[in-house]
Design a protein that fits this description.
Helix content is 24%, strand content 28%. The chain has 301 residues and is an alpha/beta fold. Helix 1 (11-22) runs parallel beside helix 2 (57-70).
């Protein structure tokens, strides 16, 4: 019987593992990928984590993980297929049918890329990770679809590789922070395509064109690749019918991480919150362990 099972090994889960290890709680981190560090691992550069300016996302994730490992955190690579609370404790059923018991659970499974659901959206040449696939488009023409921080970061990264980067956004203003917007405006080979809604991606075997409705009129861009950055969806299917979720599927939980189920805490991008950043995910992990410690103490009498 573990004191805490942490589901997810991104910044929230790893911070929780650090704090739980320091508190000498019997803790296990369940992760989908071996040596994972969440979506931060595919972020080219993080400029807003205090004290570590201009650090690569993969490097920062590794620092989180190394810290947790040095403190003795235990990790297990396995998907959780079922979670339930019964008789005051939780049972996590794994993909290999192993059942693990814990007195409390910190759910930090994060989010997944929101898919572009249009015709041709699964053609070869459609990518959701610029830093993973950008090198294949040296000197070529690509489009980035989206208007938030990730989309503009992807466009800037790809501008150093591709001949031309079309930045396609459905509105005429971007949601990204001002610094990113200024950088995009100054980058000559980034072409803004605003008020544009993608309708279809065409090509025989790979991406060849992106069809749009721009201001209500049909347009077409000739491309070699399309990078999609239109937001994320929470990985909360495991909690459906277990804990209270909001209308978008995020776990209803406050700053203390407490959910509608006693002993179940939510940390990181998966919970209801205004700002989803590495620093807020880390704070969530710490808060959840503090809440879990209090819960465990109260329930041990």
């Amino acid at each position: 019987m573990y004191d805490i099972i942490i589901i997810g090994s991104g910044p929230a889960g790893l911070t929780a593992a650090i704090y739980a290890s320091r508190a000498r709680l019997q803790t296990l981190v369940l992760e989908r990928d071996t040596m994972g560090a969440g979506q931060i691992a595919v972020t080219e550069q993080v400029d807003n984590y205090p004290g570590l300016p201009h650090i690569g996302g993969y490097e920062l994730g590794e620092k989180f993980r190394e810290h947790a490992t040095e403190l003795g955190a235990l990790f297990c690579e396995n998907d959780v297929t079922h979670l339930e609370k019964k008789d005051g404790s939780f049972t996590a059923t794994l993909e290999d049918h192993t059942e693990l018991q814990a007195r409390s659970v910190i759910y930090a499974a994060g989010t997944s890329y929101r898919r572009l659901e249009i015709a041709g959206g699964r053609l070869a040449g459609v990518s959701y990770c610029a830093t993973c696939d950008g090198a294949f488009y040296q000197g070529k023409v690509v489009a980035v679809i989206g208007g938030g921080d990730t989309a503009l970061e992807d466009a800037l990264y790809l501008s150093r590789l591709a001949k031309t980067v079309y930045l396609v956004h459905r509105r005429d203003t971007f949601r990204a922070n001002a610094a990113l917007q200024e950088a995009v405006q100054k980058t000559e080979n980034i072409v803004l395509v605003t008020n544009a809604v993608p309708t279809e991606i065409t090509g025989e075997k790979r991406v060849e064109t992106l069809k749009l409705l721009q201001g209500g009129s049909p347009e077409e861009l000739s491309l070699d690749g399309v990078f999609v950055a239109i937001g994320s969806v929470p990985n909360t299917s495991l909690l459906e019918g277990v804990a209270e979720l909001d209308s978008s599927g995020y776990v209803q939980a406050g700053e203390d991480g407490r959910t509608s189920v006693e002993g179940l805490f939510a940390a990181g991008d998966v919970r209801t919150k205004a700002l989803r950043q590495v620093i807020t995910a880390a704070a969530d992990g710490a808060n959840c362990v503090a809440s879990a410690e209090k819960y465990l103490l109260e329930n041990r009498g």
